[in-house]
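Fold Annotation — chain and its backbone

Encoding — discrete vocabulary of local shapes
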Amino acid sequence: MDNVGIVFEDLEAAVAFFVELGLELEGETTVEGRWAERVVGLDDMRVDVAMMRTPDGHSRLELMRFQRPKAVSAGPRNAPANALGIRRIMFAVDDIDDVVARLRARGAELVGEVAQYEEMYRLCYLRGPEGIIVALAEQLGGPGGRRDPRQETPEDGKTGRR
């Protein structure tokens, strides 16, 4: 996979959101011309593009704002996780609580809650710019996972599940 494209009305806010998530802005440009119109099937197209690279350098997001023709809604702005089509993009993070707090400061809202899957992952869905869903996954350890001190009970110090 080379990249995933996401259309926004507020490109600046989208770039700031993904920078806060840890992606790096590779570059920005404006795309127009007959060749681009032929590729995407839109006449008189002019689009601002910000290319974001993931921290590992293996993936990119192409964030776009259409100057013309104006962007159109593909459905409800805050479509639920079970709506048809691409619903979310998941990112691996080292500290899910820190990332959630930083993204909330940029207007993101938890869709549900931060939950733990066995002793392997802590996961959540956040609603970000333009209503997109971004999932976060914090791996808790190696093959057997690691003990999460937040889940130890005072009585026995054993790990419980959320």
